[in-house]
Amino acid sequence: MTKKGRVFSGARPTGRQHLGNYLGAIKNYVALQADYDCVYCIVDLHALTTVEDTVNLKQNIFEMALDWLAAGIDPQKSIMFVQSMVPEVTELHTILSMVTPLGKLTDLPTFKEKARENPNNINYGLVGYPVLMAADIVLYKSNAVPVGVDQAPHLEFTREVVRSFNYRYNCNVLIEPQMKVTEVPKVLGIDGVQKMGKSLDNHIEIAGTPEETQKRVMMMVTDPARIKRTDPGNPDVCNVFSMHKIFSPKADVEMINIECRRAGIGCVDCKKLYAKSLNESLASFRAKRAEFADKPAEVWAILHDGAQRAKVIAAQTMREVRDAIGLPNLGE
Ligand code: SF4
Questions:
Q1: Ligand 1 atom closest to Cα of 241?
Q2: Atom of ligand 1 nearest to the CA of 257
Q3: How far apart, in whole angstroms, are the C-alpha atoms of residue 218 and residue 230?
């Protein structure tokens, strides 16, 4: 079947992935492989803008790769690699920075947010972060980028950079990527209030053991108005119920929806049931992950092979970029 084009997406190497990563990105990455040529990148250079301690960086890349592979990213179908293994991205970043007004970067809400979060480390790379992101996308001649609705401005920024470059050098070398808006559920953390994230320690790792998973599930906040076991609950405001709807059999979901409202089931039992469903849903993923984890050399070989294939596309783009600008190419 002819594919619809090339999709690019990147994620920072945050190590073992959690349910928010899985439901918000990885599941979609896997599904997109049926219709698109996919390029999935672990963006380690981006991590350097805010992470100063790199002791665990390689291990985090490896752990993330394990999760991606075990979840179903197929290295035969897709290119999966590490950003810094294809240094052309830094060259393109420099070139694109020349067509990007500084004010545009410092005005971006993401920059302001990051600067607030890291007041003692507002570095040049942090300001240029969106330019590096644009370089990632256009270096691989991507036609589309999967984005949540809230990320749409980031991609619009990339499209503007592409237009500026093509206009300045009177060419059509760089492709304006389209937004592939995806509906992803907002996965709340075990606090039931904030988005799931490692920095908030409110996450549930997909690669955890069944015991670890159950322990985290039992910590989940439920309907805050349900104080006693005899109080009726409201599943509509309960994060545990939202997760049941994704991972539990339909019959369990229907039962909880009725029994919770008349205090027929307590939150402890309800959470045990969710932990069971979650562990069952993740069992085959975890088995595959363990197989990959036993063969680290194979995992790194997949990442190296992905980088080689990405490099072929990157080298071609850079030849065209250099020609469009009028920079001499080596060997000319
Ligand atoms: Fe939530 Fe289940 Fe408790 Fe109802 S019984 S409030 S759905 S955890």
A1: 7
A2: 7
A3: 19
